[in-house]
Amino acid sequence: xxxxxxxxxxxxxxxxxxxxxxxxxxxxxxxxxxxxxxxxxxxxxxxxxxxxxxxxxxxxxxxxxxxxxxxxxxxxxxxxxxxxxxxxxxxxxxxxxxxxxxxxxxxxxxxxxxxxxxxxxxxxxxxxxxxxxxxxxxxxxxxxxxxxxxxxxxxxxxxxxxxxxxxxxxxxxxxxxxxxxxxxxxxxxx
Amino acid sequence: xxxxxxxxxxxxxxxxxxxxxxxxxxxxxxxxxxxxxxxxxxxxxxxxxxxxxxxxxxxxxxxxxxxxxxxxxxxxxxxxxxxxxxxxxxxxxxxxxxxxxxxxxxxxxxxxxxxxxxxxxxxxxxxxxxxxxxxxxxxxxxxxxxxxxxxxxxxxxxxxxxxxxxxxxxxxxxxxxxxxxxxxxxxxxxxxxxx
Lengths: 190, 195
What we know:
The complex is a heterodimer of chains A (190) and B (195).
Chain A lengths: L1 H12 L2 H8 L1 H30 L8 H29 L1 H5 L2 H31 L7 H23 L15 H6 L9
Helix pairs in contact in A: 2-4, 3-4, 3-7, 6-7
Chain B lengths: L1 H7 L1 H18 L2 H18 L2 H8 L1 H29 L9 H29 L1 H4 L3 H27 L7 H25 L3
């Protein structure tokens, strides 16, 4: 599996557009800035929804109103963030695919997506009975806490990707970090 | 007459006084004279203060605090967007803007405190670097302007009377100014990372 991921990453790395994007100072910075600014949009909206469910924001506003109105800007932010995230990966594919933080981040993104699905399912099933309550029922509150936790850790791990603490170049062969990062024995491209 | 004027518009007058002071300091080149004197403080912040020592010694702590700073900015962004887009009539049109403004202000204030606290830690860790960055000083100026604007102009005005009694253009101007200031804070903050 690691060999397959590495081969795909090397193939992407060898394309001209990947090099151009990586080497372009302004383009790369614009993509990264857009990624971070749309993260502000997406998570800003998401956190407001979660805080409403926990009773910390807009306790007097129906929960369904907050969720319905903020879902669209949150999704717009998420789509742009996702596209720019793919571009950032494409600019530095080998190192990113072998970053232990990136791998944890991807696992957490899947967990956050499953949690979001469950959260909306639980909310839509029961919202008519507690819509005007300051706090949502415990199952929905748990979904909000998980959402806040997952996304906070995703942002922290996203920040950690920039650091080279566990890069394949700087860690010992056979170490746990090399195992988790999927480093390939004798690889020459990083 | 003068007393009633002063008591009625105390906060607005403070803001105008601060802005005038900045202009006077700039015209008299006081800022340029003060600037070199700040360097020892920034060097001390990085190499001798405990914040700087923790930031430079433990990279993982520094990166985590950076991420919390970013999360705080996300919450600030969310509250600013929700409030200002409602004031502009783009979102939440079926909800009273008074309810929304009050609902977001507490969250905004908490996130601002968190962003400032984590921001001080981050700046201390690279004190001798940010001192020379023009974009850092623009961010600081935008942050001060944004905070003064929110606490001395925007909130007092929005809390002073029902929003439908305020001139709609004043409301729109408030919202656009707020969006511009906080976008500047976020964008310059991101640019610090590239400088």
